[in-house]
Write a structure and sequence with these properties.
Distance between the termini: 19 Å
CATH class: Alpha Beta
Order of helices and strands: EEEHEHEHEHHHHHEHEHH
CATH topology: Rossmann fold
Number of strands: 8
Structural class: alpha/beta
Largest sheet: 8 strands, mixed
Oligomer: single chain
Strand content: 15-25%
Shape: globular
Length: 265
């Protein structure tokens, strides 16, 4: 994956790109407190058949983190649409969104049907009525991070506690201590966990093939939410990943990669 930068209305956005010569496109949108790198080797592996892009959302990773930005789902949605247009991506784009990224991806699909070919919602937010206890703990830790605290909260997000490498903890602490990163994190969580897509609005994704992936042991967003998404989106399918928590693509990368390959190609 090649590291690149885009400028969107004064915002500097970092993204990773591979398979640029392919005429089918896939965009990966990460979750809260994460970055493009969190997708590990999955985008690169799919780039043999697809033009794969993973970006750092504004406020996260190495993208700009303006203190003046309102980190709402609507703003993220509009930035994603602008990003696709800025890169002059011709034709429809498939979007894979994890957690916060799933919420954003769903909003893009509902409001811009003509630009979305296929949709993947992975342990997606968007139906929470309020932050879950683990999300509240995640926020507390992010505001005052230490290696011990970050590791403990991350261990609750996976099915196997030994699956948290030191570099994941260290990377999070480095990113969250960047200027304005804590503000962006807090603002994003408050905006995303206290708002809902609405089951009726989800029905707008009726003509877009949608894959819903969920870790069976997700303690951040209950697996029951996968059924709610499935019932609201007519043309949708569910894949439940066993022995995985909130980020099944990180715990079971080979399995998730093949599920994505089969669905997207």
């Amino acid at each position: 994956m090649q590291e690149r930068w885009a400028n969107l209305k004064g915002l500097k956005i970092r993204y990773l790109e591979s398979g640029k010569g392919n005429d089918r496109h896939i965009l990966f949108i990460h979750g809260l407190g994460s970055s493009a790198d969190r997708w590990l080797g999955i985008p690169s592996a799919l780039s043999a058949n697809l033009h794969a892009i993973a970006l750092d959302l504004p406020g996260f990773g190495e993208s700009d983190k303006p203190a003046t930005m309102d980190y709402t789902i609507e703003n993220f949605r509009d930035i994603i649409v602008d990003f696709i247009n800025e890169l002059a991506i011709n034709g429809k784009t498939s979007i894979v969104g994890h957690s916060l990224g799933g919420y954003i991806a769903a909003e893009v699909a509902m409001e811009n049907k003509n630009q979305v070919e296929r949709l993947v919602l992975m342990d997606s937010s968007g139906l929470l009525k309020k932050p879950t206890p683990l999300l509240e703990e995640y926020l507390r830790v992010a505001m005052n991070p230490t290696k011990d605290k970050v590791r403990k909260v991350f261990e609750q997000m996976v099915a196997g506690r030994t699956r948290i490498p030191p570099k994941l903890v260290e990377g999070f602490i480095t990113r969250i201590n960047l200027p304005n990163a804590k503000y962006a994190f807090k603002s994003t969580l408050e905006n995303s966990a206290n708002t809902q897509i609405g089951l009726e609005r989800l029905k707008l994704i009726d003509n877009i093939p949608t894959l819903i992936i969920w870790g069976i042991e997700d303690k951040v967003i209950p697996p029951e939410h996968s059924r709610l998404f499935k019932e609201a989106i007519m043309n949708s399918y569910i894949e439940i990943i066993q022995d995985a928590g909130h980020a099944p693509f990180a715990e079971k990368p080979e399995q998730v990669r093949e599920i994505l390959r089969n669905f997207l190609t």
